[in-house]
């Protein structure tokens, strides 16, 4: 009398008279802990779409590698991303430093951890999948996203399973998660086994993070209507099209006037339409540290320029690894006048033409035009889509 459902087990009940009537069953939910913990937020019979999201045909970069996004894997990754149980004192999750409301970044310069604060500003996690650069962290110390996902967990200051300074090792986290009912069910659901390993955690977290995409911006609406980025976008204002041209065009040094003309050359490091960072980029001239002591010339990675700000122009937290820049105007101003600081042997060659720091001599209208263009790179859905939101009840 019951329709067969793949995820429900049935136990036959015998009548008290001793007869065996297999038409009477009591359904048993193998994912009762998932249901009890997350309610309707996670439905194992109807998962959110992570694996088959629409990607514009002009987006060609993809660093997924051998860890293809699945609805099951990304669902587990979402739970792990938001679960404070992944920290040693149950107070910090990945989402504590990478907040959906701020393009998966933080509004503070240094994010709070279990034993202090982060050494660099928390990088935005928008469109991390769509980049040639596969390495992660500002200094590229993680060879890929999978490796990166558990490094903050193993950091004494951030999430506290370092195995040093009195911390439990990562194996302590494995033991901890193995006692939690919804993880037993989730790992069984995703991998066919309750066994929890670091590799499985890495795969799931990376799938969730790579699923976070933003392609509903004014830029994307315009780009879909033209053959290439160099053409005027019909939905752009004249100012926005001017800013786009300045962004795409390289600067040209005029020896007669001893000035730089042309564009800003931003696309040399942040190529459209992904606006990711070129893998061979040096540092950008910002070599300070958050604590203000010493210099750091190893920071050569950057997030995509998409969703630098929200649609209303407010920032998604400070920019750069030190959080020293807080407005688009200040960011453009930095690249307009590059100071070649003593000791910076790793400044990107594109920022030191003729051996000197770049001097663009931008006019106020040009700066405003580039700002207008950068604002077109911001979408809306990424800030509110429930599939990337906290699955735990508030």
TrEMBL record:
Q: Where does the record say this protein resides? A: Cell envelope
Organism listed in the record = Flavobacterium buctense
Q: Which Pfam families match?
A: CCP_MauG
MF terms (GO), sorted A to Z: cytochrome-c peroxidase activity
EC? 1.11.1.5
Which named protein is this? Cytochrome c peroxidase
Mind telling me which PROSITE patterns this protein's record contains?
CYTC, PROKAR_LIPOPROTEIN
Per UniProt, which keywords does this protein have?
Heme, Iron, Metal-binding, Oxidoreductase, Peroxidase, Signal
């Amino acid at each position: 009398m019951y329709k067969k459902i793949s995820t429900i087990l049935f136990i036959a009940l015998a009548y008290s008279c001793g007869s065996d009537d297999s038409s009477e069953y009591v359904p048993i939910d193998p994912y009762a802990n998932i249901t009890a913990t997350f309610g309707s937020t996670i439905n194992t019979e109807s998962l959110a779409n992570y694996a088959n999201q629409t990607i514009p045909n002009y987006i060609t970069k993809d660093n997924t590698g051998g860890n293809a996004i699945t609805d099951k894997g990304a669902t587990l990754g979402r739970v792990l991303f938001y679960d404070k149980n992944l920290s040693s004192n149950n107070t910090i999750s990945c989402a504590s430093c990478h907040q959906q409301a701020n393009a998966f970044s933080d509004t503070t310069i240094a994010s709070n951890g279990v034993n202090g604060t982060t050494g660099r500003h928390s990088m935005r996690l928008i469109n991390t999948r769509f980049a040639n650069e596969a390495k992660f962290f500002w200094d590229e110390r993680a060879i890929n996203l999978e490796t990166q996902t558990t490094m903050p967990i193993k950091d004494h200051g951030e999430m506290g399973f370092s195995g040093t300074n009195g911390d439990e090792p990562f194996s302590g986290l494995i033991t901890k998660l193995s006692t939690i009912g919804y993880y037993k069910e989730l790992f069984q659901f995703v991998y066919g086994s309750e066994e929890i390993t670091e590799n499985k955690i890495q795969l799931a977290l990376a799938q969730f993070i790579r699923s976070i995409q933003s392609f509903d911006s004014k830029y994307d609406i315009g780009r879909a209507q033209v053959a290439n980025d160099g053409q005027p976008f019909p939905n752009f204002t004249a100012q926005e099209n001017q800013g786009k041209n300045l962004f795409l065009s390289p600067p040209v040094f005029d020896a007669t006037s001893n000035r730089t003309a042309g564009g800003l050359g931003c696309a040399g490091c942040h190529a459209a339409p992904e606006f990711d960072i070129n893998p061979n980029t040096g540092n950008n001239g910002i070599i300070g540290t958050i604590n203000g002591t010493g210099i750091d010339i190893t920071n050569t990675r950057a997030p995509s320029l998409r969703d630098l700000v929200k649609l209303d122009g407010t920032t998604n937290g400070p920019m750069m690894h030190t959080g020293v820049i807080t407005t688009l105007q200040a960011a453009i101003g930095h690249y307009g006048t590059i100071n070649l600081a003593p000791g910076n042997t790793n400044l990107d060659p594109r920022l030191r033409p003729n051996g000197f720091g770049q001097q663009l001599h931008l006019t106020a209208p040009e700066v405003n035009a580039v700002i207008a263009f950068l604002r077109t790179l911001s979408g809306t859905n990424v800030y509110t889509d429930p599939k990337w939101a906290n699955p735990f009840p508030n």
